[in-house]
Design goal:
The chain has 123 residues and is mainly beta. A hairpin with a 4-residue loop joins β7 and β8.
């Protein structure tokens, strides 16, 4: 079992920065993927950024060049550095993790999820 706890959310003005953290407790395996998702009121949850155990990263087009996902393997912490925040970045942000299987690594409803941290961007 893996437990994920997010922190670092808050209120910030447009153009500002925040860094989200996700502490992972428990062993998920040597091959895994982790990611950040967000959900705004009235909208579906969307993937923001993802990192695999080999360090490969992917980003949603809406955050490319502004957000950076990284991990501290020694401390089991996943980060999301968010710069140049926009009003549309306002959402609850969730951390997710899963093992890599023979068919790949998928972050979905069957994965491990945190409880979320709120990010609010104001003008």
């Amino acid at each position: 079992q893996v437990q994920l706890v997010e922190s670092g959310g808050g209120s910030v003005q447009a153009g500002g920065s925040l860094r989200l953290s996700c502490v992972a407790a428990g062993y998920i395996g040597s091959a895994y993927c982790m990611g950040w998702f967000r959900q705004a009121p009235g909208k579906e949850r969307e993937g923001v950024a993802r990192i695999d155990s080999n360090g490969f990263t992917t980003y949603a087009d809406s955050v490319k060049g502004r957000f950076t996902i990284s991990q501290d393997n020694a401390k089991n912490i996943l980060y999301l550095q968010m710069n140049s925040l926009k009003l549309e970045d306002t959402a609850m942000y969730y951390c997710a993790a899963d093992r890599t299987y023979a068919t790949g690594c998928y972050l979905d409803s069957h994965s491990f999820w945190g409880q979320g941290t709120q990010v609010t961007v104001s003008s």
